[in-house]
Amino acid sequence: MTWLITGGAGYIGAHVVRAMTGAGERAVVYDDLSTGIAARVPDTVPLVVGSTLDGPRLARTLAEHEVTGVVHLAAKKQVGESVDRPLEYYRDNVEGLRVLLEAVTAAGVGAFVFSSSAAVYGMPDVELVTEETPCAPMSPYGETKLAGEWLVRATGRATGLATASLRYFNVAGAAAPELADTGVYNLVPMVFERLTQDTPPRVFGDDYPTPDGTCVRDYIHVVDLADAHVATARALRGSPGLARTLNIGRGEGVSVREMIDTINAVTGYDRPPTVTPRRPGDPARVVASADRVRTELAWKARHDLHDMITSAWAGWLHHHPEAARA
């Protein structure tokens, strides 16, 4: 099969391209390069620069490259920004998806993998979040991901398109330094930035009902996440009308304080965090149940927290060589 990977020049997208081509699949990247980096795309993989809002360009790309499946990762993804700019998020994440699905169904593409998020769950008051846990997103970003799942599922029911929505939990790490996350929006790069600026990391609240009082999250290595896309894509092949919704996580909780301690140990720093007030809307614990993906796809995360931090740190130093200490 030939897979169109939207957002394939982004952090996660580049890892998905690497995993798909490494597994013998053909790939084409479609990215507007607003946050993606063209150098992440291998020379052997075609790169089409375009927006998912551009229906005619999508149609030409699907036809010219004889695309038979799509992995859709292109989206805006910053929770705080989505609160300030909801119209942009609904335009790009929902209308862009609608335009893409229209082109996909018109072209007779048979399989569609949708990049969703654990943000669809909001603040679940459960030990482990299953795919049946009620969804109550707390930001426009989370809302657009849930609306995207509905749209993907409805399109599959109406047309026979085989679909899967993958709900990512917290992604970290890198397959190679040059593919590392260059943004400073998630906990790991935020801690790296503060450590290398000789500033203590911040903990937003230490009075949660958790073992050490800090929030607990499920972290997954980006390489494992990319491999889950390969397993999903293969499950959809030749399965018209199949619809799956899957959590992609390790099923293990790590607190913010544990994460900062691990980062200090890996990087050689010894800088205790400072505690600041809670951020509004932060749930105490969000950890995936990964039972369904293990059962349905025979997939399981292989990398641990140390692997994530070590590879992420190598990537940080690659992109910020001035941060390396003698």
Fraction of residues in β-strands: 15-25%
Radius of gyration: 19 Å
* Largest sheet properties: 7 strands, parallel
CATH superfamily of the largest domain: NAD(P)-binding Rossmann-like Domain
Shape: globular
Work out the helicity level.
Answer: 25-40%
Q: Encode the helix/strand succession as letters.
A: EHEEHEHHEHEEHEEHEEHEEHH
Domains, number? 2
**Strand order within the widest sheet?**
3-2-1-4-5-6-10
Low-confidence stretches: none
The count of DSSP E runs of length 2 or more, i.e. the number of strands, is 13
Overall residue-averaged pLDDT value: 96
Using the coordinates shown, work out and report the CATH topology of the largest domain: Rossmann fold
Any overview of this molecule?
The termini are far apart. Strands 3-2-1-4-5-6-10 form a 7-stranded parallel sheet, with helices on both faces. Strands 7, 9, 11 and 13 form a 4-stranded mixed sheet that branches. With 326 residues, it is an alpha/beta fold. The chain folds into 2 domains: 198 residues, 3-Layer(aba) Sandwich (Rossmann fold), CATH 3.40.50.720; 106 residues, UDP-galactose 4-epimerase, domain 1, CATH 3.90.25. The mean pLDDT is 96. Strand 5, helix 5 and strand 6 form a beta-alpha-beta unit. Helix 2 runs parallel beside helix 4. Helix content is 39%, strand content 18%.
